[in-house]
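Summary for the steering committee. The consortium agreed at its last meeting that each partner would contribute one worked example illustrating the joint modelling workflow. Our contribution is presented below. We chose a case with several input lines so that the handling of multiple components could be demonstrated. No manual editing was applied between input and output; the record is shown as generated.
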Amino acid sequence: MSVVTEAPPVDRTGSSRRTRRIRRIARRVVPFGAGSLPVLVTLAFTGFPVVLAVLYTLGKTGGFNETISRVGQHQVQARHGLSLGAYRNFFASHALRADLFITLWVTLASTAALVALAWMLALFVRFSGGWIGRLISTLYVVPMFIPSVIASYALVTFWEQNGKLAAIFYQLGIPNGWMPGFTSTGVVLGLVWTNIPFAVILLSSSLQGVPEVLIEAARDVGSSWWRIIWSVLLPLNRLPTIIVIVFTATGTLGNFTIPDIMGPNAPQMLGVAMTKYYQSYGQPQQAEVMAVLVFLAALVLSAFYVASSRADRKRNAARGSARAAVK
Amino acid sequence: MTTLTKPVGIVGASRRSARFAAGGVRGLLVVGLGLFILAPLLMLVLWAFAADWFYPSAFPSAWTISWWSTVLGGNHLSSTVLWSFIFAPTVTIVSAIICMPAAYAFARKDFPGKRLMMMAIFATNAFPKMGLYIAMASLFYSLNLMGTFVGVVIIQLLNTLVTMTWIPAAAFASVPVSLEEAARDVGAGPIRTFFRVTFPVARPGIIVALILAFLASLDEAQGTFLVGVPKYVTMPVQMYSLVSGYPGPATAVFAILLTVPSLVLLVLVRKHVFSSSLAQGYRLR
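What follows is the complete predicted structure of the assembly.
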């Protein structure tokens, strides 16, 4: 260690102890200050508005909410305390219940389809070298660079009823009765399309980290590929899979652009419905009720993510100390 | 070896047929993926040169380049491209200034509430954007930010905070402390150590974060529309109004023109996107 060569610290004057103490405090305060900069931006422009929004949905129409509540129609105002009236109105509406249901369904279906497809692509990128691997890894990043407005427009005009895909099917004599354009299934496909890059990058880079030795060992004892995927690769890539699920599902729940351009007029996903309720129907409070409901669903997912990354950290720590003990 | 007890010929045949089947599956997957991802985009290109294209013909019956002169001659294009390419670098730089020191602090220093702070930044992703914009409207009106440049930057900034903090934090954390200590031992100061040792090693992660922030800004339509219109109309905002109000081929031309900058970016930064930095950023430490 360098301690041996270093001269012992010289206590020059009485003030040096004070500067040392200041330096010690600064060493903790400066990082805290730096770390709190993005947090402050988040609190000011997300945390604060979210608190306002929640209060507004609970019938608090005064204070900062006054501007918005002046233009709002069909509002529930709480004279004293809080009121759940706006939420009661939401669940009393048959159309909005359908919107909530389709939001959850599309999120579930697109996340499941994405994870399955991304796993498959990640496995190919990891294990099939040569031009096929290279081709796949060039293809799957393309959607990342296409703005989502353009992507949704291109996709929906491609596979709408009487669209380009239907025309190709017709020419080839393939029956083309049903097309995914302007349906919720189309929205699911569109979400898979746009989320492929993020999912595959995450999964394939963690698959690269799986030691070749482990796979060789499994193959030596005669495991099939399915067995290797199921009992070696999947457990080792649990956390990246969960990250993909949580981040795409959270983004999907409140998504606006893709369901708005690609989806049906009814039932709509809540991201679209809340925009319509605010911009077209002049009901910001009802729109905020939807936002809060989506937020609650996203919070449940986030809690799942935090819990599993904590478990992962503990497991890694345990593994690290076990390794140290062996040495 | 157990395989030696089996007749060699059968093993060879079954293995060959298995390899053949795997090759078939692989080929199908590549073709399927290629069609799924590229076909809609290629059709958009055809669409941009179509004079007439009615169902059920698979290709346009007549071709024209008149849509290009219509779009290029109109006044939509140049100003929207300009605004997009003013906002995207501005947002990226502001985001880097706000987030990079934080990322370094999260990676290297220990202070109370660190993990809570990282999760608080994630909250920007969890609340649906539209709900946020409605609630923010009051705030923006009272701060006089509606319809201003700063207002649009703030709106777009919110989409970049998570990637700009998490990914560089992971990149800084992956720089071995011993490397920094070695530099300090031979007499480099903290600033010199950072720029000569820490930063070069962490650079791939930082580049990925910058690219993602840039793309997030280029992609943002809804908030920019609500805050920026009528003065600040960026490319996706313009595209949004075209989708609903213009003839198909003109929209296709516009879409292609708007995709060009992103594709140039794709070619330039392709190899950085594949680095493991992106994946590392999303693992909470």
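Chain A touches chain B through 110 residues (CB under 8 Å). Confidence is low (pLDDT under 50) at residues 1-7 of chain A.
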